[in-house]
């Protein structure tokens, strides 16, 4: 089984707004660890270290959070709060997991071959952007790839058509539609039509 990604954390005992502000001003990300049947743990982690871990390993990576007193938690990211317009990281919620027990997670769909559809004036009409799956934490993929290059107008793609990785299942009904392939609509600009009408009127006036 693959090793988890290690991140150093601090367990927060001071939960005041002033302390949260101080931590954020010093480059820390505020967070909590949810634990089944137990109280959650308030923590902070270096924002840039967390950002790099997600960028390198993906949203569904298993992380090992280690505190100064060597207490460790195997977790997955449950939710991340960002603030627009800069989309700065503000808060993260982790979910403690067991490496030997199946977990449920939402996995993003990644489309391959869209450019071949666009060349035929076809588009992917998405019904779902993620697929809910079950599996061991280390086996949950960061995304599920679907090749649409050879699909045609009118084609429908369902959950039953998805090739899930070995050990991964989904409780979504097999006939649930993920997307359809439609013809792209061509919208003529109103300004161009008006311009053509004016030219016709002018031409008629000259003939008269």
Quick summary of this structure?
The chain is an alpha+beta fold and 208 residues long. The chain has helices at 17-25, 47-57, 114-119, 190-207, and strands at residues 5-11, 28-35, 38-46, 63-66, 72-83, 88-96, 103-112, 122-126, 130-135, 143-147, 156-158, 177-183.
| Poorly predicted residue ranges | 201-208
Multimeric state? single chain
Distance between the termini: 86 Å
Secondary-structure-derived class: alpha+beta
Q: Estimate the global geometry from the Cα principal axes.
A: elongated
Reported for the largest beta sheet, the result is: 6 strands, mixed, barrel
Query: What is the tally of helical segments?
Result: 4
Q: Number of DSSP strands?
A: 12
Helix content: 10-25%
Any idea of the CATH class of the largest domain?
Mainly Beta
**Please, how many domains?**
2
Report the β-strand fraction as a percent range: 35-45%
Order of helices and strands: EHEEHEEEEHEEEEEH
Query: Considering the protein shown, what is the CATH homologous superfamily of the largest domain?
Result: Ribosomal Protein L25, Chain P
Name of the CATH architecture of the largest domain: Beta Barrel
- Give average pLDDT, whole number: 89
The side-by-side strand order for the widest beta sheet comes to 1-3-2-6-5-4
Description:
The protein has 208 residues and is of the alpha+beta class. It folds into 2 domains: 5-96, Ribosomal Protein L25, Chain P (Beta Barrel), CATH 2.40.240.10; 103-183, Ribosomal protein L25, C-terminal domain (RNA Polymerase Alpha Subunit, Chain A, domain 2). It has 4 helices and 12 strands; from the N terminus they run βαββαββββαβββββα. Mean pLDDT is 89; it is low at 201-208.
